[in-house]
Amino acid sequence: MRRPFYLVTGLLSVALGTIGAFLPLLPTVPFMILAAFCFARSSPALERRLLDHRHFGPHIRRWREKGAISRRGKKAALAAFAFSIVLALLFSPFPWFLVPVAAALIGGTWIWTRPEA
After folding, report:
1. What is the pTM of this model?
2. 83, 46: one domain
3. For the chain, percent helix, then strand, then coil, each to nearest 5?
4. 8 Å CB contact between 117 and 68
5. Residue whose C-alpha is closest to residue 13's, from 44, 46, 45
6. Of 23, 40, 110, 114, which one's alpha carbon is 20 to 30 angstroms from that of 77?
7. Which pLDDT value is given to residue 58?
8. Where are the transmembrane segments (predicted)?
9. Distance CA 1, CA 20 (A)
10. Same domain, yes or no, for 49 and 104?
11. Are 48 and 97 part of one and the same domain?
């Protein structure tokens, strides 16, 4: 029962990561890391394909080995957080705009404190 769940979740993660490669605010690498996690529990062949991928493989391996995020990835994540804060300030009333601000501060701090490659 778990294996099909992990397989479907991994395939959905790859689909979302692929979409994220073309949409600026949808992350790609986190979805590929999630897909590798799911494939490790459902399909070793698909996991191997992700680990051998020339773009995503190094990010996945760095995350697995050291919990590391590249400086470029950190900057991209923080830029996305900043953009979401601006949107919240423009379109959300007080106090609701504080929710994305708090999420960005917490998430951004966590991301920035991860080790680098």
Report:
1. 0.80
2. no
3. 75, 0, 25
4. yes
5. 46
6. 40
7. 93
8. 72-91
9. 29
10. no
11. no
Q: Could you read off the pLDDT of 33-86 as tens digits, one per residue?
A: 999 999 999 999 999 999 999 999 999 999 999 999 999 989 988 998 898 899
Tokens 């995503």 belong to residue:
56
Q: Are 77 and 111 in contact (CB under 8 A)?
A: yes
CA atoms of 13 and 7, how far apart (whole Å): 10
Query: Which of 88, 113, 117 lies closest to 101 in space, CA to CA?
Result: 88
Q: At what angle do helices 2-20 and 29-40 cross, to 10 degrees?
A: 160
Same domain, 60 and 98: no
* Torsion sign, CA atoms 17, 22, 27, 30: positive
DSSP 56-104: THHHHHHHHHH----HHHHHHHHHHHHHHHHHHHHH--TTTTHHHHHHH
Tokens in use for 74?
């950190």
Residue 59 · residue 44 · CB < 8 Å: no
Classify 114 in phi/psi space as left (phi over 0), alpha (psi -120 to 50) or beta: beta
